[in-house]
């Protein structure tokens, strides 16, 4: 199992410790209910596809829309979530 939720909790704790403008640089991953990484991750209007380990798939980052991720068969939604 890939521990998206653990990484999200750790990032959330960092935000709670020191609330400064720089906190915008802390990325909190989007997780499924079972603790895996959601296929599409977004931050500040940019979205990208990730693999099962939460690593960004090169060339998938887009602005203002959701990327078409390989596991979706190129049929990703076209609006931000």
From TrEMBL:
Residue ranges of the region described as Disordered: 62-81
Keyword Nuclease part of the UniProt annotation: no
- Gene3D superfamilies associated with the record: Thyroglobulin type-1
Protein location: Secreted
Q: Which UniProt keywords apply?
A: Disulfide bond, Repeat, Secreted
Task: Give the record's GO CC terms.
Answer: extracellular space
Highest taxon, organism lineage: Eukaryota
InterPro entries with a match to the protein in the record: Dev_reg/Prot_inhib, Thyroglobulin_1, Thyroglobulin_1_sf
User: Major location, coarse class?
Assistant: secreted
Q: Which CDD domains match?
A: TY (cd00191)
Q: Which residues form the Thyroglobulin type-1 domain?
A: 16-69
Q: Which organism is it from?
A: Pseudonaja textilis (Eastern brown snake)
List the PROSITE patterns. Answer: THYROGLOBULIN_1_1 (PS00484), THYROGLOBULIN_1_2 (PS51162)
Q: Which SUPFAM superfamilies match?
A: Thyroglobulin type-1 domain
Query: What's this protein's name?
Result: Thyroglobulin type-1 domain-containing protein
Disulfide-bond pairs as recorded: 49-69
């Amino acid at each position: 199992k890939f521990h998206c939720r653990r990484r999200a909790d750790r990032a959330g704790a960092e935000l709670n410790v020191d609330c400064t403008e720089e906190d915008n640089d802390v990325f909190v991953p989007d997780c499924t209910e079972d603790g895996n990484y959601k296929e599409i991750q977004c931050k500040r209007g940019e979205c990208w596809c990730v693999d099962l380990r939460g690593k960004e798939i090169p060339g998938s980052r887009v602005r203002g829309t959701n990327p078409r991720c390989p596991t979706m068969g190129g049929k990703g939604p076209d609006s931000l979530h």
